[in-house]
Specification:
By secondary structure, this protein is of the alpha/beta class. It is built from 8 helices and 6 strands, in the order αβαβαααβαααβββ. Helix 1 packs parallel to helix 2 and helix 6 packs antiparallel against helix 7. The longest helix has 14 residues.
């Protein structure tokens, strides 16, 4: 991120939306630089994979150790600093379904609990509304598509997933088990679940 900042200072250019792929364990300094880059240049956006916490989290926990583990995917620190991030799957490293990333952003659990259920702690957990933004409007922003997709507004494409439960009302543990009942792309139904 310091290199991005130096390049922007030498050749200022707004709106390129440079990304920081993964940004797994950024320092406080790196998060501050990301925030500064976003405000000044529309640049420096972490592209984060919350599913790493779950799917390969036991490997991370063993490799990073207890001092660094709480810094993995520091979503709350991003939020406090005013940094937005794009949530993704990094498929085929992790399973594709978005529900896993939403769930992992909130609960921060590993698959096998080899180092405890939540070796990364809950200090960097975010609520489901924030997690959902990272997979919708903030991800659309990173792809230069925020005027077309990422939120439900007049004039946008109406790409919509209809879930079987209200994400805002269910216990966080149930987010992992959500089922998509219907998917619309540009307002047309492209998927409809026919059986439970």
């Amino acid at each position: 991120v310091d290199t991005y900042a130096e390049a922007q200072k030498a050749h200022p250019m707004k709106g390129l939306r440079h990304s920081i792929i993964h940004a797994n364990v950024p320092t406080d300094h790196a998060i501050k630089v990301m925030a500064d880059l976003q405000r000044a240049y529309d640049s420096g956006y972490p592209e984060a994979q919350a599913r790493f916490l779950w799917w390969i989290g036991d490997t991370y926990a063993g490799n990073f150790g207890p001092k660094r583990n709480p810094r993995l995917e520091p979503f709350r620190s991003y939020q406090k600093a005013g940094v937005i991030w794009a949530g993704g799957s990094d498929y085929n490293v992790t399973p594709y379904a978005a529900r896993y990333g939403l769930w992992a952003s909130v609960v921060r659990e590993t698959q096998a609990a080899a180092y405890g259920k939540t070796p990364f702690g809950m200090g960097e957990s975010v609520d489901i509304r924030t997690a959902l933004k990272s997979y919708t409007i903030w991800a659309a922003h990173q792809m230069f598509l925020e005027s077309q997709v990422g939120s439900l507004e007049p004039g946008k494409f109406a790409d919509i997933a209809v879930w079987d439960r209200n994400l805002y009302k269910i216990p966080a543990a149930q987010l992992k088990d959500l089922q998509c009942q219907m998917t619309l792309v540009a307002g047309k139904v492209v998927f409809r679940r026919t059986s439970p």
